[in-house]
Amino acid sequence: MDVSTALRELFALQEKDRELDQIKAEMEKLPPELAELRERREKLLDRLTELKEQLKEVRREYEKNDLELRDLTQKRSKAQEEQLQAESAREATQYENRIQQLSTRIDELTELTLPLVEEMERLEADIQELEGELAGLKPELDRLEEANRERIAELEKTYAELHQERERMAKAIPQRILREYETIRRARKGLGVARMVRVGDTSFRCEACHVQLPTHVAQRVYQGRTTVRCPSCGRLLWRGEG
Ligand SMILES: [Zn+2]
Questions:
Q1: Which residues contact 155 (CB under 8 A, 6 or more apart)?
Q2: pLDDT tens-digit map of 114-130
Q3: Backbone angles phi, psi at 195, to 5 degrees
Q4: CA of 237 to the centre of ligand 1 (A)
Q5: Stretch (H or E) spanning 197
Q6: What is the pTM of this model?
Q7: How far is the CA of 13 from the centre of ligand 1 (A)?
Q8: What is the three-class DSSP state of 1?
Q9: Is the Cα torsion angle 86, 88, 90, 93 positive or negative in sign?
Q10: pLDDT of 71-95, one tens digit each?
Q11: Long-range contact pairs involving 186-191 (C-beta distance under 8 Å, separation at least 24)
């Protein structure tokens, strides 16, 4: 196979490679409505975690107060019982003072604890609302995820078929040229071989980078004895069909 023929085959192979690139890009592109819904779900989940964390803290504080309140109430009951059995007025007064102290502390603590109960109720209601919202999102999200999976599976199938075809085409191209093409393609964002385009009667430019080619370069491309690269963008030059 002469170089010009190999380059023609290579150019056709590049068309396949670009199709494959496109399919890959399609696969990675998330449908906007799915992306949006996933983002909403993420936000709701973050908020939910935050609220649950808050609830845990408030509950912990509530339980601590509650425990102390039980303890204080128990102590007060005991003091009240003991007061009844006081053997002197002085002793009764001592119990009375203790009961007073305990009552004051119980009142203070109760006052601190009641807002915690309200806060827990508020947080629980918010959590329930968020969970409802999340549950509401689920059917549509599931539907979109499933559609996306099907879309990707379909693209994968097309990709595999095209890739097989591409490999078949690659076998016909000399290894050296193919490897040179692949290296350039990786470095030059998708294009490894470019057509030469005639400008006027005697000039040519590189179709990929549009730079006008020196005459001796164009001549060498036409002679087709070896591969020639565009002096500007470095891509392999194919003389085209014309
Ligand atoms: Zn070029």
A1: 23, 26, 27
A2: 999 999 999 999 999 99
A3: -80, 155
A4: 8
A5: strand 193-199
A6: 0.70
A7: 19
A8: coil
A9: positive
A10: 999 999 999 999 999 999 999 999 9
A11: 187/234, 188/233, 188/234, 188/235, 190/17, 190/18, 190/21, 191/14, 191/235
